[in-house]
Amino acid sequence: MSIEKFSVEKVLSVHRWAHNLFSFTMTRPAHFKFTAGQFARIGLMVGDELVVRAYSVVSSPFDETLEFFSIVVPDGAFTSNLQHLKVGDELYLEKISYGYLTLARYQQPLPQDLWLLATGTGLAPFLSMLQDFETWNKYQQINLVYSVRTASELAYVDRIQEIAKLFGEGHSGFRFIPIITRDPNAALHDRLPVLIANGELEKAAGSELSPASSHVMLCGNPQMVEDTKEALKQRGLTMNRRGEGNIAVENYW
Ligand SMILES: Cc1cc2nc3c(=O)[nH]c(=O)nc-3n(C[C@H](O)[C@H](O)[C@H](O)COP(=O)(O)OP(=O)(O)OC[C@H]3O[C@@H](n4cnc5c(N)ncnc54)[C@H](O)[C@@H]3O)c2cc1C
Q: Which residues form a coiled coil (predicted)?
């Protein structure tokens, strides 16, 4: 990998949510442009090798710094090292951003209701979208659905409320719907495809998944993405291709 493709950035803050989850911010070079929903490629020197991984940007395209939300995979080549990150450390950032999980991809149906369905760190691109006023101006109803295994993995809950207050002021159609799959006492604890098939997700959102009006984005665990896609297709929703259709997805592995 050619090192000239990267700039060297400084870590500004690190926040630990759980033993296997943390967020960090770093300096943003002026040349690094992105649209809400896109991902960066971040590099870390491990010995004398540059290890690079894709990371969705959490921050808004208008922020002066870059924020990311990371899993720790115990034997992962990248995150087993990244988990020790400290303020002042250096990270490599590829100069360009990537990805098509952006609202600009939707032409038909016209924007009306937006469903953002995440597992775990798949929340990241949706936090960026929600920190863009354009998202709130475009959609009458926005449902952020965030599925985790245990309550301790529910990161960003206070930030989500703050973002909704700040960016969604005067907007009456926002619902935040957490799902905790290993807690039978949680209001919603089934997997997303089940909650779609049995109508519980729509009940919690107070709105319908509709081929005529819904834009649905899925991000995170590939098995969740695949199974949820199928559940949505059963309801008549279609994959978004060349601007048309309801469903857009991003797999993290
Ligand atoms: C487009 C894109 C955007 C991504 N954005 C993010 C992000 O914002 N935050 C983030 O933490 N990761 C993200 N990832 C995953 C990330 O690139 C790495 O896979 C992750 O950092 C683990 O790297 P690793 O080398 O430690 O393990 P890897 O060798 O890359 O992965 C090992 C295994 O760990 C599991 N795994 C990998 N990533 C995750 C994850 N995020 N959550 C749960 N299990 C996982 C999978 O089972 C995978 O097979 C993204 C991936 C893609 C393709």
A: none
Please report the atom of ligand 1 found closest to the CA of residue 53: 17
91 and 119 fall within a common domain:
no
Beta carbon of 197 within 6 Å of any ligand 1 atom: no
Residues of the domain holding 156 = 101-249
Atom of ligand 1 nearest to the CA of 71: 11
Tell me: do 189 and 120 sit in the same domain: yes
Q: Please name which of 159, 67, 53 lies closest in space to residue 98, comparing C-alpha atoms.
A: 53
Q: What is the pLDDT of residue 2?
A: 83
Domain end call among 39, 66, 96: 96
- pLDDT value at residue 55: 98
Q: Edge to edge, what strands does the sheet with 90-94 contain? A: 49-56, 39-46, 90-94, 6-18, 21-27, 65-71
CB 93 less than 6 A from any atom of ligand 1: no
187-230 pLDDT tens trace: 999 999 999 999 999 999 999 999 999 999 999 999 999 999 99
Cα of 101 vs centre of ligand 1, distance in Å, is 16
Prediction pTM value: 0.98
Distance CA 181, CA 98 (A): 31
**105 and 225 housed in the same domain:** yes
Q: Is the same domain home to 34 and 106? A: no
**Does the beta carbon of 77 lie inside 6 Å of ligand 1?**
yes
Does ligand 1 lie within 6 Å of residue 72's CB atom? no
For 146, the 3-state DSSP assignment is: strand
